[in-house]
Amino acid sequence: MAITAAMVKELRESTGAGMMECKKALTETNGDMDAAVEYLRKNGIMKAEKKASRIAAEGLTRIAVKDDTTAAVVEVNSETDFVAQNEKFQAFVEAVAQQAVNSDSKDMDAFMAEKWNQDTSKTVNDALVEITAVISEKLSIRRFEKVVASNGIIVPYVHGNGRISVLVEAETDVVNDDIKDAVKNVAMQVAALNPKYVASEDVSEEYRNHEKEILLAQAMKENEELPEGKRKPQEIIEKMLIGRLNKELKEICLNEQVYVRAEDGKQTVGQYIAQVAKNNNAKLSIKRFVRFETGEGIEKKNENFAEEVAKQAAGLN
Asked: Which is it for the CA torsion 129, 132, 138, 141, positive or negative?
């Protein structure tokens, strides 16, 4: 029986197995879909499917660098932090980062369909399925981002053995150790304080208006809770609102944040960068940053590990 692409696609979607494994399974079973599923199960390829409903919120981030102008950051998730310490898993994450820095893909679907650099007979997804079977936990390549500097440098920083990874792109006409160290210091700032924007002018009007609504509601509630004789008029509340919004923007905008290593405790990141530029007779500015934190935004299940082990021992899972 001729094995069609549609048949391979159907088997792949139902089992999570790689394309080549699905084609082989269908070939071996003469196109019988149920028999092909059994074939995959018997050969251990369906281990990944059994874990599909679990949440992978641990894992690692990693960075791969080509040179001063090209780098990529990836996040690969596992179910437990224990697996994140596994050498095979770590090697796989390193390989994914290398794949990303050499990739031209613009989204995850295209990236997962790429030929795996370490074995071009497989796709990235095939490699993921294989390592999942070896590790025996649900694994997920969650995201990647490649950054190419057009007029400057890219400096990486990895914190906490891969818990957080940061890439900072800086525009500069001078590249030396002093400039690189300064940009790395900024990357450490991004890792520690998690800004959302480079500068206040980057903040959208939509975001500003949304925050104004929240801050106004907070201010009005606080005002209503005051004794009647001490309540503030509307114009005073609006002035307070502007002050609170500006304070918030200083916390979420990198250039306006207080530089964590400032000796006077007042110097902002923007002022620090300007001082480094002056000292090196250079033009220097932060263009953008990318910050990946493991498990960020993933809702984790609150599971009782001892109870789960007990269930497995009793054959109830």
From this structure: negative
